[in-house]
Write a structure and sequence with these properties.
By secondary structure, this protein is an all-alpha fold. It contains twelve helices and no strands. Helix 3 packs across helix 9. The radius of gyration is 19 Å and the shape is globular.
């Protein structure tokens, strides 16, 4: 019988694997990247929908509440990692392959553009489906009120906070993905992601793909009956321009968080100085 290696991958092995993944991702055909990115947007949105149900009428202490919300949101990243999908926040770590000269700048930017576009399509499609399904009417409409409340916060956040929270978010999220790469089983991977994702939700950080779902869903609910349960001034602030401009800063923050704060140190520690195996920056 074949022996199974139960030891986790080492930090060096993870870094080398992420480098290889980056090469594969950058050379993936457009259609495959785009479809898998749509799936990632959908998966993250499913985690958001679960989060809204759990948090729709939470009146307890702050800490236990955000932990419960984090458990619900974990569904999204678990599906991305285990089922396989292309998520923009994780793909910010292509900078490792770029630093090694194995992926060009154009290759990185091409991948990011395709993936964020696919994530957007998946997020919007799921938001439309959630609206049609009446998901927002659950718990006497409190789910919808929670959606609008989150949409308001995403539409009024200061640019500085959007950028800083975007950095923090992708430190958490890419750490979760990085640690999942250490695992050899599905159970290993889920357990590795658990604490970073709970911390991400608890910290109130900003995830560009989750926000694409939050914003789309909130905009679709402005004309529904649940909107009457929200203050008119707050409802008026939920507009596409207000939301969209802040997501630019969130996206940039996510790139810094994953591409520099996580990928950078591990590249420096394990790959710096190694001879590139082809490709130029």
């Amino acid at each position: 019988m074949a022996e199974f290696n139960l030891m986790p991958f080492s930090s060096r092995e993870i870094t080398q694997n992420v480098e290889k993944y980056g090469v594969d991702k950058s050379s993936m055909p457009f259609a495959r990247s785009f479809v898998l990115a749509i799936m990632a947007g959908l998966y993250i949105g499913l985690g958001c929908m679960f989060y809204f149900i759990v948090m729709s009428d939470w009146h307890g202490a702050f800490g236990p509440g955000v932990i419960m919300g984090g458990f619900a949101f974990l569904l999204g990243l678990t599906a991305v990692v285990i089922a396989g999908a292309e998520l923009f926040t994780g793909n910010t770590m292509l900078t490792i392959s770029w630093r090694q000269g194995k992926v060009t700048t154009a290759g990185v930017l091409r991948n990011w553009a395709i993936v964020i576009a696919g994530n957007l399509v998946g997020s919007v499609l799921l938001a439309v489906l959630a609206r049609w399904s009446g998901h927002y009417q659950l718990n006497g409409g409190l789910v919808g009120v929670k959606v609008l409340s989150v949409g308001y916060s995403k539409s009024t956040l200061s640019y500085e906070m959007a950028f800083a929270r975007g950095i923090l978010c992708n430190i958490y999220v890419c750490l979760a993905v990085w640690m999942a790469y250490a695992g050899r089983s599905v159970t290993d991977k889920i357990l590795a992601m658990l604490l970073p994702i709970l911390a991400f939700i608890a910290s109130g950080s900003e995830h560009i793909v989750a926000n694409l779902f939050y914003g789309s869903y909130a905009l679709l609910l402005k004309g529904t009956s649940v909107a009457a349960q929200m203050e008119a001034q707050k409802l008026a602030a939920i507009t596409l321009p207000n939301f969209a401009v802040r997501q630019i800063f969130v996206l940039l923050g996510n790139i810094v968080g994953g591409g520099i704060f996580i990928a950078g140190p591990y590249w420096f520690a394990w790959l710096r100085g190694e001879t590139p195996a082809g490709g130029t920056k």
